[in-house]
Amino acid sequence: MDKTLADLIRISNITGKDPALIQGGGGNTSVKTPDGKFLYIKASGTDLKNMNARAGWCKLRLAPVLAIMKDKSIAKLGAQPREAKIVKHLLLACTDKASVASRPSVEAHLHAMLDNRCVIHLHPVAVLSFACARNGEIELKKLFKKIENHKLKIKNVSPPLWIPYAHPGFALASQIAKLLADYQNRFGKKPAVLFLQKHGLIVSAHTPDAALKLLRTVINRCKGKLKYPKAVKAKRPNKKIVAEIKQCISEALFKATGKHTVIKYFYDGQIAAFCRDKNAKKLLTPPALTPDELLYVNGPAMWLDDCGPKKNTRRLNSLIKKGKTPPVAFLVKSVGLFVAAPVRVAPAVRDIVKNSFVIRTNAFRLGGICALNKAEQNFINRWEADAFRKKLATGTPAGV
Q1: Residue 389 in domain
Q2: What is the pTM of this model?
Q3: Residues 303 and 207 both lie in one domain
Q4: Which of 106, 119, 326, 381 is deepest in the core (most CB within 10 A)?
Q5: Do the Cβ atoms of 9 and 40 come closer than 8 Å?
Q6: DSSP state, 183?
């Protein structure tokens, strides 16, 4: 196997197995060949942990990927035709005959513009707790103010760069390109650590080991300032009660949407602890925090004090009338988490919801929760790239 591909598979499998670092099928990794001519990158919508020698990645020619950001005709297009054209450019840059069903990450140009060979872009709980907080940028600057190379034990690491939120895809890449240029003028090189508001973290280094080490260092420094709710020992609710609530949620969803949905039930110490939090309902009031939470869960879990189907049907109908998609996760007081999603997706929804508990709790402490606004949500809901990811995640054939 090509060593560059082997390096990509290694860093992808290591990071993809940790649910605290990813959200669903989100996140991407890349490694450039030593000659700087090619880029191996994760395929869109696939899981990092499942990448192997045969699937989960694409090989791109670097020059045409970098040319995307310089193409003025692309910049002049509207959002939807622009993103579609970028997908075509990325497919044309592939050397491995990528198909529509297996295409390179739409963030390939972000990876290409960074100088370091190994790039890891994830959505860690520890970082999102800051990135989704109103005072997140200020708190991160304090946390990394005295970033010293000998303490990090990583050579040539300069201060992290904060990236204000921008629509995913070309808009985000354009904003990062400008900020990278300004940063390089100040420090004489591009940053190895980027914090993306309401999005995640990017770290890069010249070797896989250095990139993984830098990732662990950043995560540990962030974790040191956070509070993680202690899991409680709680007796599992009566099976009859759980079955009745499943039926009530299913009935409410059918009356509101006309669709039958499988309901899965989850309960553990972390879910029990959040259910008991006096601020739980308040913390779940702000809308989706990140593109992943919107894509997989349609926003935060809906808090239910009770499960009367009539009452909850009215709530769901109210959301639908406002143009919103009904949630797929429901947190029932004193009972647990219920997920209305295909069996293969339900565990990912559960993990994203549990991660959101931690992010929302800490963001609230760090000046308040900073969620996606209506315009940001509308863009993601209409974005073809996220629709493609969702089809892959749910098992819907591409093109349907």
Answers
A1: yes
A2: 0.91
A3: no
A4: 119
A5: no
A6: H
